[in-house]
Amino acid sequence: MQGFVRESPINEDETPENPIRRFIISPQIFNVIKAALMDTEIEELPTDYDRGLDFWATKTTKGGYSDYSTSKWARKETELTNEERAAIDTNGLFNLNDFLPKKPGETELNVIQQMFEASVDGQAYDPELFSQYYRPPGLQYSGPTADARPAATAAPVAAPVAEASTDTGWQEPSTAPTPAPAPAAPAEGEVSTKTSDILAMIKQRKGA
Questions:
Q1: Minimal CA–CA distance to 55: which of 81, 36, 28, 82?
Q2: Residues 191, 161: one domain?
Q3: Do 77 and 44 contact (CB within 8 A), yes or no?
Q4: What is the number of structural domains in the chain?
Q5: Which long-range contacts (CB under 8 A, 24 or more apart) does 7-14 make?
Q6: Distance from the CA of 84 to the CA of which of 100, 143, 148, 181 falls in 20 to 30 A?
Q7: What is the mean pLDDT of residues 99-119?
Q8: Per the confidence metrics, is the pTM higher than 0.85?
Q9: Residue 64 and residue 124 in one domain
Q10: Span 67-92, mean pLDDT?
Q11: For residue 95, how far is the Cα from the chain centroid?
Q12: Average pLDDT in the 104-127 region?
């Protein structure tokens, strides 16, 4: 989302030349914002230039985690100032679509499937196979990737896939994995949520 910061407890060393800010909104704050946008009793949109509402983002803690549930819209309408209107005229509003992350294509979806199946099989993350596409936060890796390895020494697929893409450097293994034994059924009225049971059920479906 985008907007102006009218008041903030954060002391900035430098303020940007363009006062229109872009915000990454958490789901908790988004639900508060959405509720007001969908409220039929509000005559004007909270984003209206003349009769809009300020939004107060309030951060507290709950159970050791950040909590924004007390954030709210102001009750009193406030119009944009002359300076804020001039900033919009001068800089224009952002096209927020330009900042959305890239959507995964066929190759990326194939890689996601392989990483998932390797994880289900209990295999560790393989940076040579996957770091070209996905890297865990904090991973430092500068070794070869799947596309950079010589063909004669290319590693086999970490896990079988239903369809192999020709541009990822992976190949179909010659033998299928042995299906894992089915987990014991939970007692009546009880749903098993153990990670080991869930993984065993997934492996059983893969071997079916």
A1: 36
A2: no
A3: yes
A4: 3
A5: none
A6: 100
A7: 88
A8: no
A9: no
A10: 94
A11: 20
A12: 88
Cβ atoms of 201 and 194 within 8 Å: the answer is: no
**Is the distance from CB of 146 to CB of 175 less than 8 angstroms?**
no
- Could you list the residue range(s) of the whole structural domain that residue 140 is in? 103-177
Asked if 77 and 11 sit in the same domain, the reply is: yes
d(CA 98, CA 114): 29
Taking residue 158's Cβ as centre, other Cβ atoms within 10 Å add up to 21
Report the C-alpha gap between 27 and 69 in whole angstroms.
10
Six-digit token string for 55? 């939004």
Could you tell me which of 26, 19, 24 has the C-alpha nearest to residue 1?
A: 24
SS3 65: strand
Residue at a domain's end among 99, 129, 162: 99
CATH code, domain with 36: 3.90.198.10
On whether both 57 and 91 belong to a single domain, the answer is: yes
Please tell me the distance from the alpha carbon of residue 29 to that of residue 72, in angstroms, as a whole number. 9
Same domain for 27 and 88, yes or no, is yes
Q: At what angle do helices 195-207 and 106-120 cross, to 10 degrees?
A: 120
